[in-house]
Amino acid sequence: MQEAEAKRLRDLLSPTRLADYELRCLGDSVAALRLHCWNTEISEAFYGPLQYLEISIRVAMTRELSVMFGRPDWWSHPRAVLTYGARQRISEATQQMQRTGLPADPQSIAEELSFGFYVSLLGRGNNYDQRFWRPGLYRAFSGYRGPRRELHRKVDYLRVFRNKIAHHGPIHHRHLIADHEAILQCLGFIDVGLAAMVERHSRVHEVLARRP
Predict the structure, then answer these.
(1) How many other β-carbons are positioned within 10 Å of the β-carbon of residue 157?
(2) Residue 17, Cα to own-chain centre: how many angstroms?
(3) How far is Cα 158 from Cα 179, in angstroms, rounded to an integer?
(4) Cα–Cα distance, 5 to 21 (Å, whole number)
(5) Which of 93, 112, 136, 151 is the least buried, fewest Cβ under 10 Å from its Cβ?
(6) Domain boundaries, the chain
(7) For residue 185, what pLDDT is reported?
(8) Percentage of residues in the chain having pLDDT higher than 70
(9) Are 122 and 133 in contact (CB under 8 A)?
(10) What span, in angstroms and rounded, lies between the C-alpha atoms of 101 and 137?
């Protein structure tokens, strides 16, 4: 690719967006565009591991919360005292299901709730340590040994990483091997077999090996 063509494409993709890439490539527009394309490729490679993490966390936590409160709509139980923000998210998920004409059953609502919602249940919340974690939510992470707050820190770190990718942000400058290992570690907290499967099929190392 010629410099003139790279600059034309840069204008289409937003000079502001490409500015960081050009800075790292010492003003070389061709190299910057190549790095941008690689950033897209490595983001795609992380999509699979992050997808498995998000789904497995939702399923494991929903399972344990439903057992704890004896109902699939565990959030409706009087003892499940959620924060205002969490209640709003459940209300919005319910309304979204109704708007699309789908039945707002507990399973559908649970699947509609964001990754951030589930991560928040591992935070301090309305005394979530005593309301959720100690009574049984810890069982969703059978391979984890440690305090709730440390698990929340690890998973919330990956939530931020996941959102960075979802919003097409740059991740090329990160310690991506450590990010990949963090995903596998958290998957292992849920099930070591699942973590092994995700690692076996992950393309992250393959794409990292051809970084421009």
Answers:
(1) 14
(2) 23
(3) 8
(4) 16
(5) 136
(6) 46-203
(7) 98
(8) 98
(9) yes
(10) 32
DSSP assignment of 9-68, as one string?
A: HHHHH-HHHHHHHHHHTTT-HHHHHHHHHHHHHHHHHHHHHHHHHHHHHHHHHHHHHHHH
Alpha-carbon distance of 200 to 52, in angstroms, equals 13
Question: What pLDDT shows up at residue 26?
Answer: 81
Length of the chain: 212
Q: Please tell me the distance from the alpha carbon of residue 62 to that of residue 88, in angstroms, as a whole number.
A: 18
Residue-wise pLDDT tens digits, 162-207: 999 999 999 999 999 999 999 999 999 999 999 999 999 999 999 9
Q: Residue 104 and residue 184: Cα distance in Å, rounded?
A: 33
| Residue-wise DSSP of the chain | --HHHHHHHHHHH-HHHHHHHHHHTTT-HHHHHHHHHHHHHHHHHHHHHHHHHHHHHHHHHHHHHHHHHTSSSGGGSTT----HHHHHHHHHHHHHHHHTT----HHHHHHHS-HHHHHHTTSSTTTHIIIIITTTGGGGGTT--S-HHHHHHHHHHHHHHHHHHHTT---TTS-HHHHHHHHHHHHHHH-HHHHHHHHHH--HHHHHTT--
- Tell me what the pLDDT averaged over the chain comes to: 93
Query: Rounded CA gap, 48 and 37, in Å?
Result: 18
